[in-house]
Amino acid sequence: MIRFRLERRETTSRWLPIFTTIGAVLVALLMGAILLAYGGLNPMVAYGQMFKVGFAESYSVSDTLVKSTPLLLAGLGVSIAFRMRLWNIGAEGQLLMGAWAATGVALFILPETTPRFIMLAAMSIAGFAAGAFWGVIPGWLKAKMGVNEIISSLMLTYVATFFINYFVFGPWAVGGFPLTKKFPRNAWFPRLLDWADAIPFFRGMTAHIGFFYGVVAAILLYILFKHSKWGYELKVIGDNPEAARYAGMNISRTVILTMVISGGLAGLAGMSEVAGVVHRLQENFSPGYGFTAIIVAWLARLNPLAMIIVAYLFGGLLVGGDAIQPAGIPLMIQGMIMFCVISAELFTKYRIRIKRNAPLTEVSHG
Amino acid sequence: MTAEYAVQMRGITKRFPGVVANDNVSFEVKRGEIHALLGENGAGKSTLMNMLGGLYRPDQGEITINGEAVYFSSPRDAIKKGIGMVHQHFMLVPTQTVAENMVIGASTGFWLSPKKLYADIAAVSERYNLPIAPDAKIWQLSVGEQQRVEILKTLYLGAKILIMDEPTAVLTPQEVEKMFVTLREMTKNGHTIIFISHKLDEVLSIADRITVLQKGKVSANVAAKDVNKAELAKLMVGREVLFRIDKEAAKPKDDVLVLKNVSANNDRGLPALRSLSLNVRAGEIVGIAGVSGNGQHELAETLTGLRHVTDGVIEINNTGIQNQPPLAAIDQKVAHIPADRNGMGSAPTLSLSDNLIMKSYRAAPVRKGWRLLNAVARNTSEDLIKQYNVATPSIDVEARLLSGGNLQKLILAREISAEPTSIVAVTPTRGLDVGATEAVHQRLISERDRGAAVLLISEDLDELLSLSDRILVMYEGQIVGELPPDEDRIDEIGLLMAGGVQEAQA
Amino acid sequence: MKKLVKTLSLLLAAAFVLAACGGAPEAPPEPETVTVTGFDGSEIDISIPQVEADKTNVAFVYVGVIGDAGWTYAHNQGREYIEANGENMHTAYIEAVPEGADAERVIRSLARQGFDVIFTTSFGYMDPTATVAEEFQDIDFIHISGQKKAEPNFGNVFGALEEMQYLSGMAAGAKAAEDGSNRVGYIAPFPIAEVIRLSNATALGMRATCPECVMDIRWIFTWFDPVKEREAAESLLDAGATVIITGADTPGPVQAAADRGYTGIAHNSTESCNGLEDSCLGVPYWNWGPVYLDIVEASVAGTYTPEDYYGSVADGMVGFLGFMEGEEPLPALPTEVIPLIEATLADMEAGLFTRFDMFTGPINNNQGEVAIPDGYAMTQSDLEGLSAGYMDAFGIADRPACEVCMDFLVEGFDETAEIPPLN
Question: How large is the ipTM?
Answer without folding.
Answer: 0.84
